[in-house]
Specification:
With about 230 residues, the chain is mostly beta strands. It has one helix at about 145-150, and strands spanning about 15, 20-30, 35-45, 55-60, 75, 85-90, 95, 105-115, 125-130, 135, 180-190, 195-200, 220-225. The N and C termini lie far apart (about 40 Å).
Length: about 230
Amino acid sequence: MEDNDWSTERLSNGFQLGESLHLQADVVSGGHVPLRLFVDDCVATLSPDRSSSPRYALIDLSGCLVDGRSDDTTSAFISPRPRQETLQFVVDAFKFAGDDRNLIYITCHLKVSPADQAPNPLNKACSFNKASSLWAPVEGTGDICSCCETGNCPLYGGYSWRINPPARWPRRRGFSKAAEAEVSVGPLLILDSARGLWNSSGGLAPARKTSPGMWWFFAICLTVSSGLN
C-alpha cells in the first residue's frame, strides 16, 4: 500500500477486485544520452507465459492504453511524467471468468528512444479521455494517438534487449530505433467479488470499487548497462 506520491514499492501482491493497480516502468541508464521510456504493450494472463490463453490486452498498438476504452474503466497513463525515463499508469484489478485461482500476471514490452526525439505513432503513451471521447498523449500532439481508435498503429521494432542486456549498445549516430525489453509482474492475487469477470466474448466488466488514498506501485524496469555515445 502506498501514498499517492508513488514513493515506494508495494510489498503485498493482494488486491480487491476493481481496485487500482499502480504500475511504474523505469529505464536505468549509465550513459550520457537522455532517454524517454514507452510501454508498447501489456497483457494480462493466468500464467507467466504471455502467449498463453486466455489473455487480455491492457496496452496495445504501440502505446495505446486500450483497457481505458472499455466502459466503467479508470485506466490511464499518469500525466505529466515524473521523469522522461519513467512512465506511470493505472489499471483496474480484474479476474478472468471461470478461474478459481484468482491470480493474474502482467507482462509488458518496454522500449526507449532518445528524449530529444518527438513522440510519434510508434513511440507514444495514449489514454482514452471519456469526457471528450478522444485519445490524448502524455506528451506530443494529439494526432499521434489517432491510430488507437482506427487500430492501424505501426508495430514496434528495432534492437531487442532483455534485463541485463549485452554490454555494447549501438552508438548514438545509429540510434534510429528503440531499444526494447520484456518484463513482468505477478502473480497478483485478486480477491473474490461478484463482479469484474472477463467473459468468453472478450468483454471486460470490472467492479469499479475505489478506495480513496490507497495506491499501489509495482516497478517494472529496463536496465541499460552502458551508455550511448
